[in-house]
Amino acid sequence: MNDPRSERDPLAGLRVPPPDADLRTRTLVAARAALERPAAPGGWRAAFAALRAAPALASLVALLLLAHALLFLVPASPDSARAKRLPAGSQAHELAASAPEVAPLPKVRPLTISLDS
Amino acid sequence: MGVGPQDQGKCAAPRPEADASSPPAVDAYTERLRELFAALARGDVDALAPLYDLCAAELHGLALWRAGSREDADDVVQELFCRLADQRHRLAGVENPRAYLLAIVHRLAIDRHRARGRRREEPLESLPLVAAPAADPGMAEDARRASRALARLPAPQREALYLHSMCDLPYATVGRITGVPTFTAASRCRLGLRALRRLLELPP
Question: Which of B108, B193, B196 to probe by mutation at the A interface, max A CB count within 10 Å?
Fold first, then answer.
């Protein structure tokens, strides 16, 4: 890989113009103001900081999380689950409610073959 | 202090002739940057001014070459320092502060350029991307010609050329800063340099 610097450099002897002097003042004033603010935490730390600052909000979030967990923990019967998924009063709901129950399959005695007889 | 990118590159000072045999003087600069980062991470307001004096010229140069607007470059540098102050808790663990700063400037300059919707108040050709050294004002015409030629390069090539040629950074670091593979960074440098020589009507 040839190094461009090994060729004759068209930028030799030139320099990058420095920024204006007033940019230094403006930048330092803005950065100082940012530095004097409390450090902004990010991600989870910001979320926990917000919850610590508002206890009512923290209680509400905890309640919602608990309710959400209970929805998954409480077992629901398959029939009620089917009916629940259909909007009440709709034609589909009525059809589902009037559908005959499927008779359970008869118990089949397992086939055993005896070699003794 | 005597430690800064200007000791190695062309940022804010005439660059000495590139010499591959000279040891990279990055270590002292990096060490100083680390010290200032650590001070900033502790919330030390007094670290801001030395940090600005140490690296603002190099960072402003990159923003200028990438964004193609002095106003955007000013905004990028200001935003960078505000971010450093705002997210100071991250600074203590930065391994390579120079590349870290240049990478942030790279991203901010691209964002700024996109936010403007590629509108350009001033033609890029009139923007002084390079200047004659104070000790040799006779090079002013060369600087103007070089600035006009640089303005005609694609921004990624111009940026790679800046990082490699003006900041004396190796291709691998140029690639890390600009988010491209080392080979792409080297290719951009070579293509940019070739185009620059053609535009300046220099022998290949």
Answer: B193
At CA A22, angle to CA A17 and CA A24, rounded to 5?
80
Amino acid at B118: R
Q: Which residues of B touch A12 (CB under 8 A)?
A: 15, 17-18
Contact status, residue B171 vs residue B186, Cβ threshold 8 Å = yes
**pTM, to two decimals:** 0.67
- Complex ipTM > 0.90: no
Looking at chain A from residue 53 to 112, which residues have their Cβ under 8 Å from any Cβ of chain B?
A: none
Which of A10, A18, A28 has the CB atom closest to B57's CB atom? Answer: A18
Q: What is the pLDDT of residues B120-160, one digit of tens each?
A: 555 666 778 888 887 777 788 888 888 999 998 999 999 99
What contacts A83, CB < 8 A, 6 or more positions away?
A93, A96, A97
Contact: A16, B202; criterion CB under 8 Å? no
What is the rounded distance in angstroms from the CA atom of residue B92 to the CA atom of residue B89?
7
